[in-house]
Amino acid sequence: DIQMTQSPSSLSAFVGDRVTITCQASQDINNYVNWFQQKPGKAPKLLISDASNLDTGVPSRFSGSGSGTDFSFSISSLQPEDIATYYCQHYNNLPRTFGQGTKVEIK
Amino acid sequence: QVQLVQSGAEVKKPGASVKVSCKASGYTFTSYGISWVRQAPGQGLEWMGWISTSNGNKYYAHNLQGRVTMTTDTSTSTAYMELRSLRSDDAAVYYCARAYGDVWGQGTTVTVSS
To answer: Is residue A15 a contact partner of residue A106, using CB atoms and an 8 Å limit?
Structure first.
């Protein structure tokens, strides 16, 4: 099974800061990576698919990049409504494992 | 609109079974597979398995094989996930999601308590 190692587990930043989360796959997964945002008590929401494609309606301050085994997710200018936990997930094959999650907070 | 609506919260005793439903609407049910994901309190997302809604092929996470069964009823556009021999660590919110995660159900809380 492919393992997804996500870091950091949590981060705290000021409004307006750029934040970056990384995800490393245990083997080559091409660009088959999703990034999800989950707010407390809510279902996850798909932000990015295919490593870098923004889902419809997702603000352009969110972005993703990478291919092979190394991937990153960024928020260019952190906003108060971005407080959430973010997860990567691969879909190169089954099982489609998730990263451990990154909790993003405001300083 | 495209949506997945799940069944309500369940309270079960250890050793019992639970069956969660996920009814799709707003799209052709058999065009997209369904994944099941769970989240224990305060924990991350755990991928449980996937079922093809067109041919019934399924894949279960290794740690759940033997206890989980995923099925679909194409006549009602509904997917089901049954988990047997419930343990305390099965207490979680269970989600269904379409295909690669673009649409999610609202979640079903399963409590396991004697």
So the answer is: yes
Cβ–Cβ of B45/A98 closer than 8 Å? yes
Does B107 sit within 8 Å of A96, measured CB to CB?
no
Angstroms from A9 CA to nearest CA on chain B: 11
Interface touch B45/A89, C-beta < 8 Å = yes
CA B48 to CA B22: how far, in whole Å? Answer: 15
Residues of A within an 8 Å Cβ radius of B: 1, 34, 36, 38, 43-46, 49, 55, 85, 87, 89, 91, 94-101
B76 within 8 A of B92, measured Cβ to Cβ: no
List Cα–Cα distances, A96 to A34, A88, B2, B11, B50, in angstroms: 10, 10, 23, 28, 9
Q: What would the pLDDT profile of B55-64 be if each residue is shown by its tens digit?
A: 999 999 999 9
How does pLDDT run across A5-37, given as a tens digit for each residue?
Answer: 999 999 999 999 999 999 999 999 999 999 999
What is the C-alpha separation between B74 and B76, in angstroms, rounded? Answer: 5
Q: Is the separation of the CB atoms in B92 and B48 below 8 Å? A: no
